[in-house]
Design a protein that fits this description.
Elements lengths: L1 E6 H8 L3 H7 L5 E6 L3 E6 L9 H11 L11 E10 L9 E8 L5 H17 L7 E7 L7 E7 L3 E2 L8 E2 H7 L1 H6 L8 E6 L5 E4 L3 E2 L11 E8 L2 H17 L3 E7 L2 E3 L5 E6 H8 L5 H10 L3 E4 L4 E6 L9 H12 L19 H15 L3 E2 L5 E2 L1 H6 L22 E2 L4 H10 L7 E11 L2 E11 L5 H14 L5 E4 L5 E11 L2 E9 L1 H6 L6 E7 L19
Parallel strand pairs: 4-7, 4-14, 19-22
Antiparallel strand pairs: 1-3, 2-3, 5-13, 5-14, 6-13, 7-10, 8-9, 10-11, 11-12, 14-15, 16-18, 17-18, 20-21, 22-23, 23-27, 24-25, 25-26, 26-27
Helix pairs in contact: 1-3, 3-7, 9-10
């Protein structure tokens, strides 16, 4: 979770209230006070509220929560006449671009710190370490439009931020601190993303580093914003959050034309929610008028629509509103979490550990003892990761999302091994050896059960290492097994084996196939194994759950 420093003087100027009130009330919007310092307070916000990752965003929310300024913030956007073009060669590298012109900014040191902090927090929360989104802010008065987002030869050079000499793009990846940190995002491509102005001067090498030419200082009055990435929704979320944050500080927002698209609009989204459902879920006797009034405090636009519905306008920066219940949560916050009556549950029970939890605990103990580090991969993934990259055929029982929000999250995982391979890819710039394991739910044929998987990557990883790990693991969890020759295409023929319990194949182990390594851009061999935990003694039999089989 992001910890955001909020300078008292700046926050008091933005909210019109005193620091003590802010310190007392900020936790009530869903945050934790991390520490209170002499000139600022550090506040921890949840990843689902990236709009609160700046002093401007927090001030906007607090003005509503404290009743100082309620209702939907209106952001007027004017045309700038500035255009961006995108090189078709970026389609397979980093295809999406969000941009805006932000004028009349007033950046003192505190405002610059807030802007830079917001940029880095969004890189983490929305950008997934700059992989999905990278953000650049540039002094517009130092460059000449129109601008071009291009696929550049790696030999192109410019002066990167915090350096005083020209460096080629390849040199930046090896000699610049940011280049070394984020080289893994682009180094596999023959060309690199680059943003240049009408005079062919370099603004930015996304997602790595901006140019020294466009450094933002306290003298900067006009900003060009660029957000590049691999996920369009994430790119536009970052664009909207930064634009509205600077608008809260008094700046004016202007559009940029990218191809046939004019952005940003900063327009709210409209939803219609049930007052009856909201009141029932929260256990409160709230009328549509009550709910609308509470939502106004949370900076929504809201008005009753008949006797049982509320028409809600969701601000463009609220990327977390995906369901009506997300709106109802804000109703509860505005009502006051401290105002809910504390009551005992209607029933009482004596708890005991579920057998699957006990097995999971045992698995963790064994794997940690073997020197593996636990990972917790996402539950949602894609056919590309789960099947195509692993050289496996899609399972007919795969649960698919009807309306996925990203091409990377289209199915519910049926296996954990592929996700660990993806984790190795994300950490390929880290030192070796790396030994990772995961344990968790998978879904197949609408049945949920648990699997585990483990991977080991280093120059000498091989079949023997995987076999030894399987043998120790099965002995420690009291699982009697046999080994037969496997046909799993994710592993090398002759260096793979199936784990058999009774007459059922419940797992697989061996050395990962070179084609799979290439698919995940890995340069060293990987020894791995995976196991269906339903085979472990003590695992409860679930009604209508298929027997372990296949992988």
């Amino acid at each position: 979770m992001a910890i955001i420093p909020l300078a008292y003087r700046y926050m008091e100027r933005l909210t019109g209230t005193d620091r003590q009130t802010l310190i007392e009330r900020i936790p009530m919007i869903g945050a934790d006070i991390e520490r209170i310092e002499e000139d600022h307070v550090d506040v921890e916000f949840f990843p689902d509220r990236p709009d609160l990752y700046s002093a401007e965003g927090v001030a906007r929310a607090m003005r509503g929560f404290l009743g100082i300024e309620e209702g939907l913030p209106i952001y007027t956007v004017h045309p700038s006449g500035i255009a961006f073009s995108i090189d078709p060669g970026l389609a397979d590298i980093r295809p999406y671009l969000g941009s805006a012109v932000i004028r009349n900014v007033d950046l003192d040191e505190e405002a610059i710190e807030s802007l830079m902090g917001l940029q880095e927090a969004l890189h983490w929360a929305v950008g997934r370490g700059r992989g999905k989104v990278a953000i650049g802010v540039h002094d517009l008065d130092t460059i000449t439009p129109p601008f071009h987002y291009m696929a550049s030869p790696r030999s192109r050079s410019f002066v990167p931020l915090d350096f005083d000499r020209d460096m080629t793009l390849d040199e930046i990846l090896t000699d610049h601190p940011k280049g070394r940190d984020y080289a893994h995002l682009v180094e596999r491509f023959s060309e690199f993303p680059l943003i240049v102005d009408a005079n062919d001067r370099v603004l930015s090498f996304p997602p790595i580093i901006n140019g020294e030419l466009t450094r933002v200082t306290t003298a900067t009055k006009n900003i060009l914003l660029d957000c590049t990435g691999t996920d369009k929704r994430a790119v536009m979320t970052a664009t909207n959050i930064i634009c509205t944050a600077l608008a809260e500080a008094g700046a004016s927002i202007e559009t940029v034309t990218i191809g046939d698209e004019v952005m940003p609009t900063l327009a709210p989204a409209e939803r219609c929610v049930s007052a009856k459902e909201c009141a029932s879920l929260l256990g409160l006797p709230l009328s549509p008028e009550d709910i609308a009034r509470l939502l106004e405090r949370m900076r929504f636009g809201a008005e009753p629509d008949g006797n049982s519905w509320i028409r809600v306008l969701v601000p463009c920066y609220r990327a977390d509103i995906l369901h009506d219940w997300d709106i109802f949560e804000d109703v509860a916050i505005a009502y006051g979490i401290e105002n809910f009556d504390a009551t005992l549950p209607a029933t009482s029970t004596v708890a005991e550990e579920h057998p699957t939890t006990a097995i999971a605990r045992a698995v963790r103990a064994v794997m940690v003892g073997l020197g593996y580090l636990e990972m917790i991969p996402f539950t949602l993934t894609s056919d590309r990761v789960l099947y195509e990259s692993m050289r496996r055929e899609p399972l007919p029982g795969t649960l698919r999302l009807l309306h996925p929000i990203s091409e990377d999250q289209t199915v519910v995982r049926t296996d954990l091994l592929a996700l660990l391979m993806e984790m190795l890819q994300a950490n390929k710039h880290r030192e070796l050896p790396q030994r990772l394991f995961a344990i968790g739910d998978v879904v197949e044929d609408c049945a949920t059960y648990q699997k585990m998987a483990a991977v080991s990557i280093h120059p000498t990883a091989d079949f023997s290492e995987a076999y030894a790990a399987v043998d120790v693991f099965c002995r420690e969890v009291s699982l009697s097994y046999a080994v037969t020759e496997s046909v799993d295409p994710a592993f090398i023929d002759g260096r793979r084996g199936d784990i058999v319990v009774g007459k059922r194949v419940v797992g697989v182990f061996g050395e990962i196939h070179p084609t799979v390594l290439n698919a995940f851009d890995l340069e060293h061999p990987v020894a791995a194994f995976a196991l269906d935990l339903r085979a472990v003694p003590g695992y409860p039999a679930l009604p209508d759950t298929p027997s372990p089989g296949g992988r």
